[in-house]
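Supplementary Methods, section 5.1.

A reviewer requested that the exact input to the structure prediction be made available. We therefore reproduce it here, unchanged from the version used in the analyses.
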Amino acid sequence: MDVEITKQNGKTFKLSDYDIVVRDFVVGSIEILPTYNEIEGRHGRVNMGATYGARAISVPFYFKANDLLDFPLLRDLLFELTVDTEPFYIRELRRGIFQTGDNKYVGGKRYLVRLASSFDIEQTYKYGFGELSFETTDLPFAESVGTTQDIQENGINADDELWGFGMGLIEEMGDVEYVPTSWYHVGSKKWSEI
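The structure derived from this sequence is encoded cell-by-cell as follows.
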C-alpha cells in the first residue's frame, strides 16, 4: 500500500519515496449533519433535512530508521511532508493479493484533505509507528483525477489510472466529445467563437 500526496504547488510524491510504509488507507463514511426544529405543543421534532459534513481518512504507517540518530530526522521529514495549513490531495495505492511489483492506483479518484489533528510517532528502537488522520476540506466526496479534456485527447483507457469503476463513463469514442462552451460574451463575440 502507499499514499500519493499532491500539494497545491503541484509537487507530487509518495510516502514510499521516503521509506514510509503505509499499512492501510481507511476511508470513513461521510458525516451526516441533520437539522431539526421543534414546534410548541407538537410531540417529537420536525425533520428539516440534512447535509453532508466532512469525511475522515486514516493512514496507519511505520518507518525504520538506519540507527537511533536517524530516527528524529525521519520523524521531522514526515512532519514536513504532511503538516500543512493548505489542503492537498491524497490518492490511494494498493497491491492485489497475488500481485507483485509496484502498487497500483485505486480507481481514478483523489481526496482534498488536510490533517485533522496532530499526531505522535511511537518509537520502538529504530522503528516509528503512527497514524495520519485526514479530513476532507471542501466537499466530502472524492474527485476524478481525469477530466473531460483527457477523454477528448486520449480517450478512456482503463490502464492509464485516471478512471475508476462507477464513474459512469462510456468507452465508445463517438459517444464522448469535449466541446468547451460558455454563456459569456466578450465584446460582440461569443466565448466559443474566440
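The chain is about 10% helix and 40% strand. These observations are discussed further in the main text.
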